[in-house]
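HUMAN:
Sorry, I am quite new to this. Are you able to go through these amino acid letters and fold codes? The numbers rather puzzle me.
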Amino acid sequence: MALTRQQICELTGRKLKDAAPTLGAMKSLVGLDGFVDNIIAVVDKRQDADHYDPVTSIDAMGRKILSASGQSSNYELVVKQQKLGGNGPIMANALASFGMDVTYIGNLGYPAVHPVFEEFGKRAKLITIADPGTTDALEFEDGKLMFGKHQSLADVTWDNLLTRVGREPLKALIGESHLVGMVNWTMLPHMSRIWAKLLDEVIPNVERHQRKLFVDLADPEKRTHDDILEALKLLTR
């Protein structure tokens, strides 16, 4: 019988709890994205300088936008929270919080790490190679509309990895890791080339031992058929 979502969560939680005592001896290497997430409310009516009524639903927001067709419209945005984002930082932060020895490589701010990753940096070793992307998440009662600024993700390249991490340190990090996670392929335009270079130039020289590889394509809808096919071919090498 298929498990429900709640049962899967409960089972996973129990297995994680049982595994916790052994995680401190395990090392992981995760990358390669990084975002600053702004959680935002859209103002419907402003009462005074400190109080406002938010737009409560995506439907209501959609109707506001549709009614502006053919004219201009202005929307006030209130940033309620700024937090770390990106598939990689969220995954790595969770692993580190659970006690695993984590090294994270990604676009966390360059040359200095962005303050939003400060707490994460207390739990994990951070190696930053580029500035983070930004997500403005408009939050409603029935969901979120997320608007991303991804220009800096194009700086996550094989050349930057070699320059800002180094070939030998990268080889050593992979070699000592029990888990290697490479996530958010969809938003990282150079990830496939990074995979190809790792397979050709690094992995053959890494000591073989039992390790797990976790790959997250994320939502590939916006990538072309050829891009997706190339990524899948690389993953089967």
In short: Helices lie at 5-23, 58-67, 87-97, 118-123, 158-164, 167-176, 191-202, 225-235. Strands lie at 27-32, 35-46, 52-54, 77-85, 101-106, 125-128, 133-140, 143-149, 179-183, 212-216.
